[in-house]
Design a protein that fits this description.
The protein is built from 4 helices and 7 strands; from the N terminus they run αβαβββαβαββ. The chain has 187 residues and is α+β, with helices and mostly antiparallel strands. It is globular.
């Protein structure tokens, strides 16, 4: 029964990954598979994620620090979006929503971490669509749901903006792995 459920979830997730809509944006976003290594079965990841949610820390972070997946090949020239865990929950993040995430950021070429909500000691909350985060997050975090774990590979031309993001490495492809902790409609 568990295997059948895991297969069904995996098939639904694969169908969902291939069904990206046209956001009307001028940049290219790929929701297609892009040669990332496998990180365990869907059922294994969901079980680990469920265990992590049972033990939030006092500062609001959940589980241990995330590890970006960076393949040994040249980076893509487009924004790459991959849902590692798709929670199928509500609400769904859209422009003008208050989004709270925990995240880790790394430089693609060097694989060196440059930022982490665990290092900062708290999750990061922002309003989507207000220019508070870089363009890669503005585009790549649309339709994010509470409990989702998403990886973004952001090309240098989308590492712009972000009035609340501090000093990010410029001229580099960046990799972020994020988990959505909360999504609320902003008045």
């Amino acid at each position: 029964m568990i295997k059948k459920a895991a297969i069904g979830i995996a098939m639904f997730a694969l169908i969902g990954v291939g069904c990206g809509g046209d956001s009307g944006s001028s940049s290219k976003i790929s929701y297609e598979p892009w040669d990332l290594p496998k990180v365990g079965s869907v059922a294994d990841r969901q079980e680990r994620r469920a265990r992590d949610f049972l033990e939030p820390t006092k500062n609001g972070l959940i589980g241990s620090e995330l590890k970006p997946i960076i393949p040994d090949r040249p980076p893509p020239e487009f924004l790459y979006v991959l849902d590692l865990i798709d929670s199928f929950s509500m609400p769904v993040a859209d422009n003008r929503d208050r989004v709270t995430v925990q995240y880790v950021g790394a430089v693609y070429d060097s694989k060196e971490k440059f930022a982490s909500s665990w290092d900062e000691g708290k999750p990061f909350t922002f309003i989507l669509g207000r220019g508070e985060v870089i363009e890669g997050w503005e585009e790549g975090l649309q339709r994010l749901e509470i409990g989702d774990r998403r990886e973004l590979v952001v090309p240098p031309d989308l590492v712009t903006g972000g009035t609340r993001m501090g000093n990010l490495p410029q001229g580099e492809t960046l990799v972020f792995i994020l988990e959505a902790l909360d999504v609320k409609e902003f008045p």
